[in-house]
């Protein structure tokens, strides 16, 4: 979990190579080739007219959280094992997509949540295997490289 958090901090600090691919009035999505796997990294950025605490409540990775209510790509989120107050092993499931051409997925990740002195909040995750969560029937087991969300306060 700590290694995933550090990787996300490195991505955030390294502005080189990001190329814009989509933008609306609210969100800008960029990508760049990954140095860890054969594929691309993606990041989405936007400013929301809300307090950092309110935004964090919507995105933080906790069982019973708001993410399953607003994010159509997250069907369920459960904690398999709470390792500490800030680190847990979690299972996230996604619904089928494209008229069921894409099967439902499940991801088992170790997740860490952090808050920094400047008020920034971070959730970082990466794939892990856990004996209490073997692959489930009717789901394709997905694999996450280090990923997560930053919630960064901005003036005003």
Structure description:
The protein is α+β, with helices and mostly antiparallel strands and 156 residues long. It has a single domain (1-151), classed as Alpha-D-Glucose-1,6-Bisphosphate, Chain A, domain 4 (2-Layer Sandwich). The protein contains 3 helices and 9 strands; from the N terminus they run H-E-E-E-H-H-E-E-E-E-E-E. Strand 1 (19-23) and strand 2 (27-33) form a beta hairpin. The radius of gyration is 16 Å and the shape is globular. It starts with a helix and ends in a 5-residue tail after the last strand. GO terms for molecular function: cholesterol binding; cholesterol transfer activity.
Give the percentage of residues in beta strands: 35-45%
The second-level CATH architecture is 2-Layer Sandwich
| Estimated radius of gyration | 16 Å
Please identify the structural class as seen in this structure. alpha+beta
**Average pLDDT taken over every residue:** 93
> Could you describe the largest sheet, including whether it forms a barrel?
6 strands, mixed
Write the topology of this structure:
Elements: H1 2-13, E1 19-23, E2 27-33, E3 40-46, H2 52-59, H3 67-70, E4 76-82, E5 87-94, E6 105-115, E7 121-127, E8 140-141, E9 147-151
Parallel strand pairs: 6-8
Antiparallel strand pairs: 1-2, 2-3, 4-5, 5-6, 6-7, 7-9
């Amino acid at each position: 979990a700590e290694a995933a958090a550090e990787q996300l901090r490195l991505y955030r600090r390294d502005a080189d190579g990001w190329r814009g691919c989509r933008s609306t009035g609210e969100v800008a999505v960029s990508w760049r080739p990954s140095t860890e796997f054969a594929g691309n990294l993606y990041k989405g950025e936007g400013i929301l007219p809300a307090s950092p605490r309110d935004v964090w409540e919507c995105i933080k990775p906790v069982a019973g959280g708001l993410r399953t209510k607003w994010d159509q790509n997250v069907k369920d989120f459960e904690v398999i094992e709470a390792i500490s107050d800030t680190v847990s092993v979690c299972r996230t499931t996604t619904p089928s997509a494209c008229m069921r051409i894409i099967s439902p997925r499940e991801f088992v990740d170790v997740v860490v949540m952090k808050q920094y002195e400047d008020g920034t909040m971070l959730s970082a995750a990466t794939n892990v295997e856990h004996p209490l969560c073997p692959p489930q029937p009717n789901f394709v087991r997905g694999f996450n490289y280090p990923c997560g969300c930053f919630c960064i306060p901005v003036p005003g």
